[in-house]
Amino acid sequence: MQQSIARNVVAGLSVAGLVLPEGIAYAGIAGLPPGRALAAGIAGGLAYLVVGRSRYAIVSPTSSSAAILAAALIGLNANAADRGMMATALTLIAGVIFLGLAAFRVGGLSDFISRPVLRGFTFGLAITIIIKQLPNIAGVRVDGGSILSVLDGLGAQFGRWHWPSILIGVGALCALLLLRRAPRIPAALLVILAGIALGQAMDLSAWGVAEAGPVALAFSDLRLPDDFSTWARLTQLAAPIALILFAESWGTIRGLALAHGDSVNPNRELAGLGLANSLSALAHGMPVGAGFSAGNANASAGATGRMAALTASLALLALALFATPLIAHIPEPVLAAVVIGALTHALSPAPLLWLFHLQRDQWVAVTATLGVLALGVLNGMLAAIALSIVELLYRLSHPSFSELGRVGDGHDFVDRQRHPDTSALPGIIIVRPNAPLIFANAESVLRAMADRARQRKPGTLILSLEESDDLDSTAVEALGEFATALRTINCRLILARAHDRVRGILRASGQDELASTGTYSVADAADLALKEN
């Protein structure tokens, strides 16, 4: 027991060493004071522990939420005085959205962001954030929201690059990558401490190396917008923040749960994220989620329970209360190196290449990546989600169908094109749509089947509905018209593998005769057809 507690405490301290510099850097990405990241990590992390159940999730500011928040704030054109107020309102709305979704038990909403979209989004987001950290490494200021403008500004200022900053940033990044080989060592914390020590020993500020600056928790009165139009606009911008936060968080939570044999409930996690973001807003924080890097670092550091996350949040609180003077002296190139180091895992093209190997969804992932790079984080994500839904609808509306043949003299029937050794039954065609029959495809696929029947003129056509556990009204009507079309060529229609709900909706529509032909297997339908023929 004591050994388990010790392991969780050590893991929590290691994670705090990663979350602190990452959070400060993410606040910078969003254009917010670093203290907001500390407040978010403390309030959000502790709030999640009240409701959430993941043993390894670390709820804190994440790279994607910071990037989307930055895009939203840019879209609002808020001045410096109102920027913090808008960030608070967006975080609060995201929390309310999470709580509302949890109340209506719609955790499955995250499935609308497919894994290829998330992989492409993550890849593009990693490239975007890394490029936007390069000016901090080079020690120059570049204005512009897109990565092209950042790269253009960086190239235009080549003559003003600050080489001491570059040396420190590159050195810090190399140290992080080397220390990562020992996962239980708090690499980010050690690099941060080394940066602070180097800054104090050599007075880096005198050399022109920028520092993080004052870091303090904000205890001022809570300010929120006071007009409906602003809240309406903020709600539109907060919805994508909540969507991508849950997709990222649920992917992390579910992945860690599967890897360690745990069970998690998406609706419960929605509630945990809702409470975390709501309290983060009240504490003058920023949007929070279960980030991939922090969660995996927690598991790798030896955590066995939620005490590690509790330790990490309390350690952040102690640092915020007692170590802010030291935090203020973190060199900016070191912070940039920590962010880049945390995102290097997302730069691997392996997940995208795997999709090309499968020949499935590869262009959805590529489009998600290009969308983020070309359109920005927010618009790129929305474009990728829209593309994945369009592709789904396209596939459903253009299904193929297979003609089935008998395997030997047995009861198995398989696709004749893929298994040419199967045999057809005399006077019978057996066909199977390779997608559920729905309004988008029923007429087209049944029309193609009717055309084949007109060419072959069988006595019986057996339609296997194993892919369709239910039918909508369009599919029901199209099925009746299909049966009528077959009767004009003296071909009888028999349904095989008809689910009970399919039979029920056919009877409700007045197609009792067709429903009564339904069998529970293709073999039964074939035997029935052979007897009648």
From TrEMBL:
Keywords: Membrane, Transmembrane, Transmembrane helix
Record-annotated membrane-spanning stretches: 35-51, 58-78, 84-104, 116-134, 161-179, 186-210, 230-247, 307-328, 334-356, 363-390
Boundaries of every STAS domain copy: 418-533
Any one GO CC term of the record: membrane
GO process terms (BP): transmembrane transport
Bilayer topology term: Multi-pass membrane protein
InterPro entries: SLC26A/SulP_dom, SLC26A/SulP_fam, STAS_dom, STAS_dom_sf
Subcellular location(s) of the protein: Membrane
Name of the molecule in the record: STAS domain-containing protein
Lineage: Bacteria, Pseudomonadati, Pseudomonadota, Alphaproteobacteria, Sphingomonadales
